[in-house]
Design brief:
Layout (H helix, E strand, L loop, with lengths): L2 H5 L17 H10 L11 E5 L5 H9 L3 E5 L3 H14 L3 E4 L3 H6 L6 E6 L8 H14 E12 L8 H13 L6 H15 L6 H4 L1 H12 L2 H8 L9 H10 L3 E5 L16 H15 L3 E7 L11 H6 L1 E4 L19 H12 L5 E3 H4 L1 E2 L2 E2 L3 H12 L3 E3 L6 H16 L7 E6 L4 E6 L3 H4 L5 H13 L6 H20 L9
Parallel strand pairs: 1-2, 1-4, 2-3, 4-5
Antiparallel strand pairs: 5-7, 6-7, 8-9, 8-12, 10-11, 13-14
Helix pairs in contact: 3-4, 3-18, 4-18, 7-8, 15-17, 20-21
Bound molecules: S-adenosylmethionine.
């Protein structure tokens, strides 16, 4: 019997080193507030990440936020790397090497205010899901929030057959081959089949698109996605029914949604919300969902948090001139100009942060304008802006700087864009590295321009207009670093 058949997952190779800002407490707080759901505000926030993978997200959140951070993953390679980061930052973090089954049996754990499970639910066997549900049932505190992401139907249906085939083929291969070698062989078979006339992929264009991604993609992610023994996409209404059984109520997607913001006033009925969202998944052919659940039958008693929402401060996390408000983003259709205006408004402030209430005012009047609200959601959902943490304590500053040093020296050493750990947003932003020599001239446009021109002309001829643009973008980047409390530039 292969390992995959024993526990329903079975992939033992290391996973990717991804960071997911939607798991950060500051993000989850904003999404909860936007739905009229209060964010748990005990003395110490207790946070748990199920199956943390390499542990980059968990470590960033533990370093950049106050609170107690816990997580588990049964892959020893993952736990070892997560420990290295934790030792570097000195953050308050507990890393467990338990399986989900072992975790559910433990009696020595506290209750948690927030539990997150990213990329776990669809990839584990039924028995393991039951263990996860037992853990959630026992360990999510009253009023606590669950973030859960999963492969969603109908969109993920295009992957079911190909995933099962890849699993079956890799599981039947000689175990002296590595997981990566088996996967590459299996991809080779698929690629040959896909060229034969009348093959399966000819009749299913979405399955062919997926196949192209499988054939062209990198294997650590794909191995974990496509060779696990259990890969079960579900409809949102099916996932929410399972959560309902343990007393968790669906609050909506874990992203900002202009149609579901409490300021618009509509009262929410959970059953209607689940149905509407499930139908929307069909409209948009969604293949992946990230959702928020709360342990409390709030029903119609949702709190009106408009004031709190308007008071939430938002920081600029990308240079407006460099962002691509992509026409491919369905949320951004027709409002690219509003998104840019909003980003420029933030940029014009020093530091580049504003309360939502101020950001949504044009010409001093509250607009209540749906397009403005939609632009704010696009800017947040795409990572151009980020909610600012409620409290920025000195300990988070020190641990963030230490983790930042570690990540810059290891994972991001060669990268021009780096994840920078920020205690100001309790999260990490993907930013271009700053050029240390030019920092001193960020507020002297003429000097900055001439230095940039001298530097850039060595590489290529650039016009005065381009130089001006580079200088403005560079000055904006410096401001973003300052806004995010990334004040130690000397290590860049
Ligand atoms: C697809 S990866 C996602 C990792 C991480 N959450 C992320 O998104 O980067 C799934 C993770 O679940 C872990 N895992 C799978 N089955 C498990 C089990 N039964 N107990 C504990 N961890 C498990 C794997 O080791 C792997 O790190």
């Amino acid at each position: 019997m292969t390992t995959a058949e024993v526990d329903g997952y079975g992939v033992r190779s290391g996973y990717t080193f991804g960071y997911y800002r939607q798991l950060s407490p500051t993000w989850l707080r904003l999404v909860a507030l936007s739905r009229g759901v209060p964010f748990p505000a005990g003395e110490t926030l207790r946070y748990f990440e199920l199956g943390f993978g390499q542990g980059v997200s968990l470590n960033v959140h533990a370093a950049a936020n106050p609170g107690e951070y816990w997580g588990n993953d049964y892959n020893p390679e993952h736990v070892a790397f997560a420990r290295q980061m934790a030792e570097a930052s000195g953050a308050n973090i507990h890393l467990l090497g338990d399986s989900f089954e072992q975790l559910a049996e433990r009696r020595d754990l506290p209750q948690f205010d927030v539990i997150v499970a990213h990329g776990i639910w669809s990839w584990i066997a039924d028995g393991t899901r039951e263990a996860v549900l037992r853990f959630l049932d026992e360990r999510l505190a009253p009023g606590g929030l669950l973030y859960i992401s999963y492969n969603a139907l109908p969109g993920a249906a295009s992957g079911i057959a190909v995933q099962r085939l890849l699993h079956a083929v890799t599981a039947s291969m000689d175990s002296s081959l590595s997981e990566g070698e088996r996967f590459d062989l299996a991809r080779g078979y698929l690629s040959n089949v896909a060229e034969e006339p009348g093959n399966h992929f000819d009749g299913y264009p979405k399955a062919r698109e997926r196949l192209d991604r499988i054939l062209g993609g990198k294997s650590p992610y794909l191995l974990h996605e496509y060779t696990v023994a259990s890969w079960r996409p579900e409809l949102l209404c099916e996932v929410s029914a399972q959560m309902k059984q343990i007393g968790l109520e669906f609050c909506g997607s874990a992203y900002l949604d202009p149609q579901r913001i409490v300021t618009l006033g509509a009262e929410v009925n959970e059953a209607d919300l689940v149905l509407e969202e499930t139908l929307r998944d069909f409209r948009l052919d969604r293949s992946f969902r990230s959702d928020l659940f709360v342990r409390a039958p709030l029903g119609s008693a949702r709190l009106a948090t408009v004031g709190e929402l308007n008071d939430q401060v938002i920081a600029l996390t990308a240079v407006p001139d460099e962002v691509d408000v992509s026409p491919a983003d369905p949320e951004a259709q027709g409002i690219a100009d509003q998104v840019r205006t909003l980003l420029e408004k933030l940029e014009s402030h020093t530091p580049s942060r504003l309360r939502i209430g101020e950001l949504l005012r044009s010409g001093g009047e509250a607009t209540g304008d749906r397009q403005d609200l939609a632009a704010l959601c696009v800017a947040l959902n795409n990572g151009f802006t980020h909610p600012v943490a409620a409290s920025d304590c000195a300990a988070s500053r020190t641990s963030s700087e230490r983790l930042d040093d570690f990540l810059c020296a290891t994972l991001f050493r060669e990268k021009q864009k780096q994840l920078r750990v920020s205690p100001a947003i309790g999260s990490a932003a993907n930013l271009s590295a700053l050029d240390e020599e030019l920092i001193a001239y960020a507020n002297q446009p003429q000097e900055l321009m001439s230095r940039l021109a001298i530097r850039e002309q060595g590489k290529q001829k650039i016009s005065a207009v381009q130089t001006l643009k580079y200088a403005a973008n560079f000055a904006c980047l410096v401001k973003i670093y300052q806004t995010l409390a990334l004040t130690r530039f000397n290590k860049i």
